Amino acid sequence: MTELDRIFSDRIADVPRSFIREILKVAMDPGVISFAGGLPNRELFPVAALKDATARLFDDHGRDVLQYGSSEGHPGLREQISARYREKANLDVPVEDILITSGSQQGLDLLGKVILNDGDPVVIEEPGYLGAIQAFSMYRARFLPVPVSEEGMDVDALRAELAEHRPKLMYTVPNFQNPSGISYSEANRSELAQVLEGTQTLLIEDDPYGDLRFRGQPKSSFLKLLPEHTVLLGSFSKSLVPGLRLGWIVAPPPLMQKLLAAKQATDLHTSHFTQGIVHQYLRDNDPEAHIAVIREVYGRQCRAMQDAMREYFPPEVQATDPEGGMFLWAELPAGLTAMDLFQRAFEDKVVFVPGDPFYVRGSRHSTLRLNFSCADTETIFVGMERLGRAIHSLMDTASQSIAADGR
Ligand code: PMP
Fold this sequence. Notes:
The chain has helices at about 10-15, 20-25, 45-65, 75-90, 105-115, 130-135, 155-165, 185-195, 220-225, 255-265, 270-285, 285-310, 340-345, 375-405, and strands at about 35, 100, 120-125, 140-150, 150-155, 170, 200-205, 230-235, 245-250, 320, 325-330, 350, 355, 365-370. The radius of gyration is 22 Å and the shape is globular. By secondary structure, it is α/β, with parallel strands linked by helices. 4'-deoxy-4'-aminopyridoxal-5'-phosphate binds near residues 38, 105, 129, 131 and 206.
């Protein structure tokens, strides 16, 4: 223990550093093919349109957007978000229920801040989004992991956790989940809504990927199925750019008052300037056409990864079949761990995220997250061939050691 260690809060002691960010540092080497990041594809960033929007914003409203703004967020941008929910999702989201945040990650932090006391139970998906695990760990949450599969959340397991622990919060990513790429089916959503009805549990519907559907039909938002119990989080990170750090929370009025107090204590308000840029961009351009391009490209990249998997991976490897988003999730044959695979794959210059950090219990998991949004289809094939080789080699080593043990 150093002198400095004495000054750190108890709160920070339990918060895991982002394993993914550590891996991303390794993946900076230009020869490495990375399926590890959770980054949107930079080739699709509308740089010229954002530059024009910024220039126009300076010309027309330079002094306004360089001034402090309101804690709730840019009124015009909140209007645009509300109108899009009405037009695209047939959801009635009053402007007053929208709080602009510095990315949806800040939404998670603010919710933790206003809801959690030390040790409060929180339902989390298993596997679950690492950023949510980090955010709620800051408030010393006690996690109740509930498994998710291709259908959605395990309803019986949830029912048992609700009955035993009466958690205040339940965190979900129902569309193209990070890390697994799965989506909750319509039937699963209604069942979950029924189970939550009448409880005191608030459901967080974190939906940064909802717009990135490349096949199948959109599913009902929990905000429609369970309006009294749902806080919806949105983000411009995946449908526009992450670097402007803009997201939002849709919350009912009593919660909004508390969130506003927490927001003011944290940063007064989200950058008025970046909100102005996005507001101007949305006015001057066709954002739906831009999103359609992202969907098309990610759909193609996902299919390339699935094709490469069929070609290069042993058939024993199982994988999810995403309808959108940026990730798929694979499970290695019994006995192999993703951490061991990571070492071997890294030697062959390909990286991914081993499943371990996405679980709040247990270790040495055999699952891995593969990101398909960042690499073009050719690179995906090259990387998947290397990864397939690494899996085969790990399986060979495992079977040799079993044979040796049997001797
Ligand atoms: N929630 C989920 C499920 C995510 O995957 C991410 C980004 N990786 C976030 C929230 C945070 O996004 P933002 O950039 O809006 O803070």
